[in-house]
Structures are given as C-alpha cells and as structure tokens.
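Help needed: design a sequence for this.
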C-alpha cells in the first residue's frame, strides 16, 4: 500500500511550516527598495550572487560571506567582491584574503577572485618555508603577477602594460594570517586599497580599525582615489594584533565598512550581536545582506575567533 501524503481532504499539500518561510532581509534604519535580483549578464555566469563558508581548527574558528549589492542586482552586474580562507596544516595557521574589484575595471570580478587565490597560494607556500615574519611584499607581487598573467591570456598572448591590467582587473586586497600561539593567536595583515580590518571587542560591541578608514573619525579627508592591484606600494600597509579570548578579527570590503562607520550605530549593533559567537555561515550571509537605504554596494566580511576557554573543537 502506498502511503498518502498528509494534507487537506481534497489531497492538497499542507502549508509549509513556519521555519520554511523564506527569510526576509533585515532592515536597518530606512530600508532600500525591495525587488527580485536580476541575473548577471551571460559572461559572468560563474560568479554567484552569494557565497559563504565556515570551519574550525583546534585553535580558531573562521566564517566568511560575500553578497551581491542591490546596485549590481538591479543592473545585472556580477558580484565584484571575493574572499577565501585556508588552513596551513603543519602550523595550524589560518590564511585569508578579501578583495573588492574596482568598479571602473571591465572584469574586476575576475580580478578579485584571482587576487585572493594567488595571495592565498603564495602565503601557504611561504608558511612552509623558514619560520619568521610573512613577506607581504612577496605575496602582493605574486597576486599582481597573477593579474598580469590573466590579462596576457585575455589579450591572446600580447604583453600587457600595467594600465591594461588595471583596466581589466583592478582590485583591492587585504590578506594575512592568524597564527596560533600559547599567549593568544597573532594576526598579521597587509592591505592594498580601501578595504578594511577591525578588532571587535565582543563584550562591549566596540570596533577598533586596524587601518585608517574613509568614513570613521580617523579619516582626515574623504576621497575616492583608491590604490589597487596590480599596483603594489612599497611598503604595503600592515598591521599586527594579538587576539585575546574576547576579541574577533574582522576583514571586510567597503560595502561592509561604509555602513559600519565607527561601529556605534545600528549596523555596528547588528553585527555585535551576530558575531558574539560564531554564527552559521548561512546566517552570516543573511545578516550581511541587510537592507539600508543608500548602501547598495557588494558586501564581504571574514571573521576569525580564538576558541573560547573550555571549548572543544
């Protein structure tokens, strides 16, 4: 006998449980206009609207998410942000990269993902070498070379000049590592461009920028000029910080950093609550996709927590 599905007397399926109702975007202040996202145009089919990932090691927990902004959803542009993270197993070090393709570049979505992949590959290679500080100039130059290689392929073997590479694939980059240490994990970062990094004090919800920001109180001037790969400043901007148990490292593009500001507004409060403990990766992506009027850029956020005392992996 074939069992019948539960439903009404006429055989109609039952209504979905409350948990199956689609999540509504979280409104922060005045929300933006709601609409169904439009697909990116055909050449960009390989860049999904949303990505997220998360995992833990014996010492650290990692979460990241990247979502397409409302402007790109409406105008059928692909998400131009990217993020990647990986574990260097011999040392237990977490390596990461976050990139924001420059909107003026014609294929910046590819530039962002290639920069992340190249930076991560070079970092893992260097971590397998002699111990010592990470050579961030080497990592950044490797990412720039990768953009040059992709441009050369795009131009059918023609040697591209820096302006051509930038016209195609310009992107910001924040890359670095978090190394386990008996005194507390140590984060080392560098950046090219205006993407950001912060330390979140979870008990009080305060954010401390690791680099000067465009919109916070540390910004003397607000300007739109962005240094980006394939240019590699010498030296790159760098930061080092030890993660006490109550601290979380955040790395994000300006789609997150601009609405965050100093962190003392509603966006800071939302993420202070969300990141009090490591959320499910899908939930982080959902929260990152909050709706707020005028903030319509792609958003990417990567977070690293030291394991809480007494926690087992």
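Sure. Designed sequence:
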């Amino acid at each position: 006998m074939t069992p019948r599905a539960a439903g009404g007397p006429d055989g109609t399926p039952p209504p979905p449980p409350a948990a199956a109702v689609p999540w509504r975007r979280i409104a922060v202040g005045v929300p933006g206009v709601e609409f169904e996202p439009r697909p990116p145009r055909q050449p960009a089919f390989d860049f999904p609207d949303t990505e997220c990932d998360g995992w833990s090691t014996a010492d650290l927990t990692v979460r990241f998410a990247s979502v397409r902004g409302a402007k790109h959803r409406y105008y059928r542009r692909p998400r131009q942000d990217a993020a990647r993270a990986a574990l260097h197993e011999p040392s237990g070090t977490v390596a990461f990269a976050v990139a924001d393709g420059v909107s003026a570049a014609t294929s910046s979505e590819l530039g962002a993902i290639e920069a992340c992949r190249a930076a991560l590959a070079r970092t893992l290679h260097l971590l397998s070498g002699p111990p010592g500080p990470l050579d961030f100039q080497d990592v950044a130059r490797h990412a720039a070379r990768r953009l040059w290689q992709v441009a050369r392929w795009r131009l059918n073997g023609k040697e591209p000049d820096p302006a051509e590479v930038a016209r195609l694939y310009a992107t910001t980059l924040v890359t670095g590592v978090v190394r386990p240490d008996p005194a507390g994990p140590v984060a080392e970062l560098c950046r090219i461009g205006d993407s950001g990094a912060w330390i979140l004090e979870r008990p009080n919800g305060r954010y401390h920028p690791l680099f000067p920001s465009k919109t916070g109180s540390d910004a003397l001037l607000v300007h739109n000029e962005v240094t980006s790969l394939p240019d590699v400043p010498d030296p790159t901007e760098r930061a080092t910080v030890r993660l006490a148990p109550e601290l979380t490292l955040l790395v994000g593009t300006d789609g997150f950093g601009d609405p965050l500001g100093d962190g003392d507004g509603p966006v800071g409060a939302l993420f202070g609550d969300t990141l009090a403990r490591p959320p499910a990766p899908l939930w982080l992506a959902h929260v990152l996709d909050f709706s707020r009027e005028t903030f319509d850029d792609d958003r990417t956020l990567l977070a690293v927590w030291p394991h809480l005392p007494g926690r087992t992996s």
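The first strand starts at residue 50 and ends at 56.
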